[in-house]
């Protein structure tokens, strides 16, 4: 067994070691990017929509972090779409009120066509969510939610979903496997937008599913192959390169976020701070409403005014500028994705922008 597959190694060590060529004299220390559509007949790979060796290292590393078998997809939504395919025709999906709006948008479109029925509840209200689980085929979980940062009691909700016989899915994009590993709690599938923390540099779009169930894995693989939502080899290569530093990036971003959340709680221009106590995402409500929130987006110089999150660079945006964001998200809410810069530079810039 080569070192990277040694189960006694910490995941932080394994993700650095996985997906490298054999240690032979003269070999590259890093993997190659295989740009090909097909392979000469008779080997392990047949056609590059089925498999591409460049996906393997990324899948092995994410699988190791989450504790299951991973499949790389062209985007987080591609992965989510494949997971939703596991719902039987006419089935019901329970989804958090404030799940990522792409997820709720996709489910709403599928409900429109009669493919499935949606039930929505507040995932941070345990009783409400448990009550809503009656006769559902899939329980969707996201914690913390995007962008309201509501936190769910995952152990309890996953256990209840398991007992009810529903497929439980957790979108682990915000927490990352460094803060929570839903498969260990009994979840059936974990899904990520690998665009965010896993790759970490805002330079690609990718998604990933992880499961411990061989039957679900087979179905997800079939959906990826036939649906065609496969990542390009360059993206997969970059994603593995980014993933190798997840532990240090995330540690720094989380420390910055904890410090900024504490300072923002004292800020006269901030009426509410949503910060779950861990992770690197914060949402604030700005005194002075929409205009004041938009003025902050205009005034920042270190923070980037942009959608998305999970990169080394700090970003913020007023979420309600997207028509798809639910009305229950306050219109003066700014979602902050805290990066790895110097925390005092981040604070000085944000404080100045908030003071207008
Ligand atoms: C961004 C995001 C997605 C969608 O992922 P893409 O890579 O943009 O397709 C799904 N879930 C969450 C929580 C996200 O933040």
Task: Provide a descriptive summary of the structure in words.
By secondary structure, the chain is of the alpha/beta class. It has two domains: 241 residues, Aspartate Aminotransferase, domain 2 (3-Layer(aba) Sandwich), CATH 3.40.640.10; 110 residues, Aspartate Aminotransferase, domain 1. The chain contains twelve helices and twelve strands. The protein has a seven-stranded mixed β-sheet with strand order 1-7-6-5-4-2-3, with helices on both faces. Strand 4, helix 6 and strand 5 form a beta-alpha-beta unit. It is globular, with a radius of gyration of 21 Å. It starts with 10 loop residues before the first helix and ends with a helix. The model has no long low-confidence stretch (mean pLDDT 97). Bound molecules: pyridoxal-5'-phosphate (PLP). Pyridoxal-5'-phosphate binds next to helix 3. Belongs to the trans-sulfuration enzymes family.
Which features would summarize this protein structure in a list?
356 residues, alpha/beta, Aspartate Aminotransferase, domain 2, Aspartate Aminotransferase, domain 1, 7-stranded mixed sheet, 5-stranded mixed sheet, 12 helices, globular, binds pyridoxal-5'-phosphate
- Helix content class: 25-40%
Q: What is the CA-CA span between the terminal residues?
A: 59 Å
Strand order of the largest sheet: 1-7-6-5-4-2-3
**CATH-derived architecture of the largest domain:** 3-Layer(aba) Sandwich
Average pLDDT taken over every residue: 97
SSE pattern: HHEHEHEHEHEHEEHHHEEHEEEH
- Which class best fits the helix and strand makeup? alpha/beta
How many helix segments? 12
Computed Rg: 21 Å
* Broad shape: globular
InterPro entries: Cys/Met-Metab_PyrdxlP-dep_enz (IPR000277), Cys_met_metab_PP (IPR054542), PyrdxlP-dep_Trfase (IPR015424), PyrdxlP-dep_Trfase_major (IPR015421), PyrdxlP-dep_Trfase_small (IPR015422)
Protein name: homocysteine desulfhydrase
GO molecular function: cystathionine gamma-lyase activity; cystathionine gamma-synthase activity; homocysteine desulfhydrase activity; methionine gamma-lyase activity; pyridoxal phosphate binding
Organism: Calidifontibacter indicus
